């Protein structure tokens, strides 16, 4: 099945509520408009997808995207637009794709100051046990940022993980930090 969405700024909207429910049910993609924490996929609302997940779904052949004038947008064109609008898009997308391909549910971690909050089963079923921050290999990171992120993740009972990656086929390394008291 191919779902249909419209690119509007930083979002792709799936307006058909039936398609929205099916896409959400497929892997907890997107957020139903007007429903902050859906308990299940039995909502009757359009679905809002972030560009990262929209590019992923388009590349998988699951999502067809048009612009506000109805012109088709290819997955490559959608990724190009995402690069223009989202700093570090390629690094973030690479980690998102790896997590999704491994069966994890990666959602925005913005409210925790991370790139992703990652679920093993899905929102509404379990709490996200991991917060992931993506950095580029060779990028310097202030040790205080690690302490802040570790302390925050500990306070919300999540593990803090750095995903260190590079462009192209460079492997991604995942470093998990555990909070300890000296």
UniProtKB/TrEMBL annotation:
Positions of the catalytic residues: 119, 127, 158
InterPro entries recorded: tRNA_endonuc-like_dom_sf (IPR011856), tRNA_intron_Endo_cat-like_sf (IPR036167), tRNA_intron_Endonuc_cat-like (IPR006677), tRNA_intron_Endonuc_N (IPR006678), tRNA_intron_Endonuc_N_sf (IPR036740), tRNA_splic (IPR006676), tRNA_splic_arch_short (IPR016442)
Domain of life of the native organism: Archaea
Coiled coil: none
Domain tRNA intron endonuclease catalytic: 89-165
Record GO terms (molecular function): lyase activity
EC number of this enzyme: 4.6.1.16
Keywords: Lyase, tRNA processing
Gene3D superfamilies tied to this protein: 3.40.1350.10, tRNA intron endonuclease, N-terminal domain (3.40.1170.20)
Reactions accelerated catalytically: pretRNA = a 3'-half-tRNA molecule with a 5'-OH end + a 5'-half-tRNA molecule with a 2',3'-cyclic phosphate end + an intron with a 2',3'-cyclic phosphate and a 5'-hydroxyl terminus
Pfam family, one: tRNA_int_endo
Sequence ranges assigned to domain tRNA intron endonuclease N-terminal in this UniProt record: 5-78
Keyword Metal-binding assigned: no
CDD domains, alphabetized: tRNA-intron_lyase_C (cd22363)
SUPFAM superfamilies found in the cross-reference section: tRNA-intron endonuclease catalytic domain-like (SSF53032), tRNA-intron endonuclease N-terminal domain-like (SSF55267)
Family, similarity comment: Belongs to the tRNA-intron endonuclease family. Archaeal short subfamily.
Subunit annotation: Homotetramer; although the tetramer contains four active sites, only two participate in the cleavage. Therefore, it should be considered as a dimer of dimers.
Function: Endonuclease that removes tRNA introns. Cleaves pre-tRNA at the 5'- and 3'-splice sites to release the intron. The products are an intron and two tRNA half-molecules bearing 2',3' cyclic phosphate and 5'-OH termini. Recognizes a pseudosymmetric substrate in which 2 bulged loops of 3 bases are separated by a stem of 4 bp.
Name recorded for this polypeptide: tRNA-splicing endonuclease
Species whose genome carries this gene: Pyrodictium abyssi
């Amino acid at each position: 099945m191919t779902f249909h969405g419209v690119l509007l700024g930083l979002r792709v909207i799936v307006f058909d509520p039936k398609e929205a429910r099916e896409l959400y049910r497929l892997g907890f993609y997107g957020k139903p408009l007007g429903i902050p924490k859906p308990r299940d996929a039995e909502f009757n609302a359009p679905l809002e997808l972030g560009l990262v997940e929209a590019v992923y779904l388009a590349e998988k052949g699951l999502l067809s995207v048009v612009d506000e004038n109805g012109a088709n947008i290819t997955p490559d064109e959608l990724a190009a637009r995402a690069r223009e609008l989202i700093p570090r898009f390629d690094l973030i997308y690479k980690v998102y794709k790896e997590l999704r391909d491994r069966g994890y549910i990666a959602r925005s971690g913005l409210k925790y100051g991370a790139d992703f909050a990652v679920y093993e089963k899905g929102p509404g079923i379990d709490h996200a046990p991991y917060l992931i921050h993506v950095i580029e290999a060779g990028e310097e990171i202030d040790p205080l940022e690690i302490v802040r992120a570790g302390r925050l993740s500990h306070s919300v009972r999540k593990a803090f993980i750095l995903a260190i990656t590079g462009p192209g086929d460079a492997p991604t390394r995942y470093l998990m930090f555990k909070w300890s008291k000296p």
